Amino acid sequence: MDYATMAQTATTMLVTLWATPGVANVALGVTANGVYDLVKRVFTGKSVPAAVLEQTKTDPKNTRNQEDLKREIVRMLEDDKAFGEELAKLMPAQAMQAYNVTQRQKVGDNAVGVQNVSGKVTIQR
To answer: Quick one: which of 48, 34, 42, 33 has its CA closest to 76?
Structure first.
């Protein structure tokens, strides 16, 4: 995946997370939170990227903020190969492969519901 596509995907995931309270897609929510944690960690201590990240989080529907964030992610990808490798693991296709889990749940008399989910899932009973 090229840097521009990776940055666009990451930006879209973050904007969806921030602009849509209670993201219905649990896998997207978990993965987007992972992307946010990674981007925040890499941007920390860098004034312009950190400010752009915070501004986009504050007003995620602003297209200028989105473009600024995408540009800063591309710059970081160009400068930091390790960031690119970590971010690639969180992209949708890779995330689906890395965190694919089959969930089985008893739903009735001897009936079992099965659902494929992506992302880190914790089930407590």
So the answer is: 42
